[in-house]
Amino acid sequence: MAVERTNRDVRTLITQIAAGEIMLPEIQRGYVWKASQVARLIESLYRGYPAGSLLFWKTGQAAETRQAALGAAQALPSVMPLYLLDGQQRLTSLFRVLSDHPEAQVVFNIETEVFQNQSAATRQNKKWIKVYDVVGPDADVFAVHAELKAAGLGIPDGEIGRRLSALQKITQRDFHMEVLHDFEYGEVAEIFVRVNSGGRALKTTDLALATLSARAPGFLGQLEAESARWAERGYGALDVNFLIKALTLSLSISGKRLSSVAKLTTASKDSVEAGLEQVRRGLACVVPLLQDRLLVPTTALIPSLAALHPLVAYYGRQPQGAAVAQAVEDGLLYWFMAATARNRYGGATDTALTQDIKVLDSEDPVKALLSNLGVAESGVRVGARDLAGRNHQSPYLMFCYLAAAHAGASDWWDGGPISAAADASGKPQYSLAHPAAKLRGHRAKYSSVEINELANIVFVSQQTAKNLIGSRSPAAYAQQVGASDLAAHAIPADPALLEADGYRDFLAARRALLAERITEIFDRFRPGFLAQSREPGARPAPRWLAFAGYAGGGRRVLVADAQSGGRSWTGWVDPADLEAALDAAAAGLASDVALSGESAPMQIDDEGGVAFGLGPFLVRGSLDQWRSALKDAFEDAQPFSECPEPTDEQWPYGTEEFPLSEAGGRAS
After folding, report:
1. What residues does 571 pair with on adjacent strands?
2. DSSP string for residues in 177-196
């Protein structure tokens, strides 16, 4: 065994990738870099900054590989390829930029020497040039130079030439390479884990996948095939990470940390294969059950996929072809809805999963699961106040969709089922019943929280939103929709509520209608041992978190407003810091965020979640949820002059976990 050390320039490496002479081994993760990270890499090369080294493995035997996210097919290699162990994100990004990939359109401002991804604004500004137009194989730098000279720039012609020349030279930048010769696959997997965990917070799922791939080459391909099977049915979130967690939960029912993925690194090959078969059997029952009986068409509607694991584990343990009693099936669906409504997995997911998986083999698993949830005697009843102040990030989005689906609601434009219209992520499309254009600036001073409430959301297609609703109040477009179609979507019949002046009464009326329908769905699956609860329980102490964006005079502030135990707290978050921290978190790197003039740490967990302390709460959510919350806050930014002052001192009392999905408005 030997380690070869050498250097190769960017152009040579890209040529080798295209020729199939550099391949990704199966143990590699997928491509995860964001456009901003790609732009920063190109800038580093332009400025001559260190860009890190690359690690390869060379062996005389063919190894299992995975397809790189190049956007183009690799040729069949004429020589034994090098397998890339460290540097996938950088080399893939460079290949995409140098091959004009549509998601790697990095542009360069010749005056400011700033790099970013292409946008509508940069396309219209001649100071921005696409990097590919300068470094691509057919680049005409003289033509680019001539166009820039004609644009009337504020820098001399010689400086334009110097900067274009520096940009051209990024393909000549060398990367230091280390090549492992004739190492065994198991040892290579161990090196991969060590190297990558040094560069970023390697998830335990990555370690488990590397170990399983070394022990059983081709295993990752089996997981990807299983994931693809369910993606075709709309359950695309059942990805490899989900399957790894489900596989872990299938292995045993002992131990304090039953759901720890680290168990897979010590499991035998036979037990892993048996566990995967159990997961397949469970999914084959659970997905049709959710789609056909509960009418959940896509995982994009499910707030926490963790709630699926007990269902998958229960059905996976049943013998092939065994029938599950109707009462048990109904009870499991009831528990799934109750767990979602109660945010069962919004905090310490592993602890809750361990508790729930352990009771699946009890005499009455449904009763045991509900007992873990705190639902022991009376059933779940959703009240109008449960929907107040909630937006599209709330778990109740799924229930509002179910309220429409179970009422047979159809699209107002083409008359098709609401499940037929989906956005790019697979989530059913929706629109605001009262369009924001009619509510913003209204004399009633409706807030962004009110405008974006769940009670103002209707599940209709983008064609309906554009061609029927537009910027008109419901009073105007409702005449083109049948009364039964409006009723199926729980639109109040009172004409006064369909005008902008009656919007707050519209919200109150629709919350009541939706809450009643959601409770009816719960009651449809309610186990017989639960009393039918028609009255809401005692109201808990006010506990809420709301975000608002303020901008003006070149400043932007995200204000977090929280209340817990009768005490209020207000904090200022730097949105640029938060965006940068989220980009870093996407690469597995923890960082700090400016909070009310001080640095506060952002935490990352093994499940890809992000937690950030805000006053009384440790707020936990996915990267997508955090980005969506930030975007929503600044969609209707308020004047900076009206920004409230932050609380002078840090929260001096105890903190508790708060799911980001619960943030939105103040409880009414």
Report:
1. 560
2. EEEEES--HHHHHHHHHHHH
499 burial (CB, 10 Å; 0-12 / 13-18 / 19+) is middle
State pLDDT tens for residues 209-260: 766 776 677 788 888 899 999 999 999 999 988 998 899 888 865 444 455 6
The pLDDT confidence band at residue 345, using thresholds 50, 70 and 90, is confident
Model confidence over 97-154: pLDDT tens digits? 999 999 999 999 999 999 999 988 899 899 999 999 999 988 999 999 999 988 888 8
Mean of the per-residue pLDDT values for the chain?
Answer: 87
Asked if residues 84 and 53 have their Cβ atoms less than 8 Å apart, the reply is no
CA distances from 64 to 14, 182, 220 (A): 21, 16, 9
Q: Tokens at residue 272, please? A: 């892993």
Contacts of range 610-614, beta carbons closer than 8 Å, 24 or more positions apart: 610/582, 610/585, 611/657, 613/655, 614/545, 614/560, 614/562, 614/569, 614/571, 614/573, 614/658
Instruction: Quote the tokens at residue 250.
Output: 């299938």
Q: Which of 512, 398, 408 is nearest to 455 (CA)?
A: 512
Separation between Cα atoms, residue 207 and residue 201, nearest integer Å: 11
Q: What are phi and psi of 183, to 5 degrees?
A: -80, 150
HEC assignment per residue over 44-92 = HHHHCCCCCCEEEEECCCCCCEECCCCCCCCCCCCCCCEEEEECHHHHH
Task: Name the band, by pLDDT with cuts 50, 70 and 90, for residue 269.
Answer: confident
The pLDDT tens digits of the residues spanning 391-447 come to: 888 889 999 999 999 999 999 999 999 988 777 677 889 999 999 999 988 999 898
Task: Write the CA distances from 489 to 71, 400, 417, 458, 523, integer angstroms.
Answer: 41, 9, 12, 7, 20
Determine the 3-state secondary structure of 298 from DSSP.
Answer: coil
Q: Are 221 and 64 in contact (CB under 8 A)?
A: yes
Asked if 661 and 393 count as a contact pair (C-beta separation under 8 A), the reply is yes
Tell me if 509 sits within 8 A of 376, measured CB to CB.
Answer: no
**Is 533:478 a contact under the CB 8 Å cutoff?**
no
Of the candidates 388, 390, 370, the one whose C-alpha atom is nearest the C-alpha of residue 380 is 370
Structure-token match 């720890």, residue found: 260
Count CB neighbours of 536 within 10 A: 13
d(C-alpha 272, C-alpha 222), whole Å = 12
Element (H, E) at 354: helix 349-358
